Q: What sequence folds into this?
């Protein structure tokens, strides 16, 4: 299954280890993560050769081709918020993971779209449990996806 992962890039990188855990876990399960570079330590360098327009077009295409989206939203990001809204407009299931105790925008917590799931976590094991639960749920939506 292709999963679009999102996390803050220019807004702050303090949750990068969690990004890496999530991306690596999904890849170990055999999923394709076109945005795995978001979890790279040098993501700004990786994307420095692309124009903003190229990044936008690439990411919109990846999101359109993905079965679902998983976003780590503990660090506010305009780009991630935009991607969440876009994914929902495409009728993609979205899991938002937030570190327990972090204030999350009411534009996310107040959204009652049935395709949006917001789950707090305390550590990697609790985050992994939420990822696994979400993946089990969406597998029923895409039973023949690879």
A:
């Amino acid at each position: 299954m292709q999963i679009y992962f999102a996390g803050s890039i220019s807004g702050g990188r303090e949750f990068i280890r969690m990004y890496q855990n999530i991306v690596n876990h999904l890849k170990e399960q055999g999923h394709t993560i076109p945005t795995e570079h978001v979890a790279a330590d040098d993501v700004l360098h990786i994307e420095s050769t692309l124009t903003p327009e190229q990044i936008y077009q690439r990411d919109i295409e990846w999101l359109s081709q993905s079965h679902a989206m998983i976003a780590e939203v503990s660090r506010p990001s305009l780009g991630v918020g935009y991607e969440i809204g876009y994914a929902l407009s495409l009728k993609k299931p979205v899991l938002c993971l937030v570190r327990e105790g972090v204030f999350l925008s009411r534009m996310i917590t107040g959204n009652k779209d049935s395709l949006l799931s917001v789950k707090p976590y305390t550590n990697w094991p609790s985050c992994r449990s939420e990822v696994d639960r979400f993946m089990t749920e969406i597998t029923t939506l895409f039973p023949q996806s690879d």
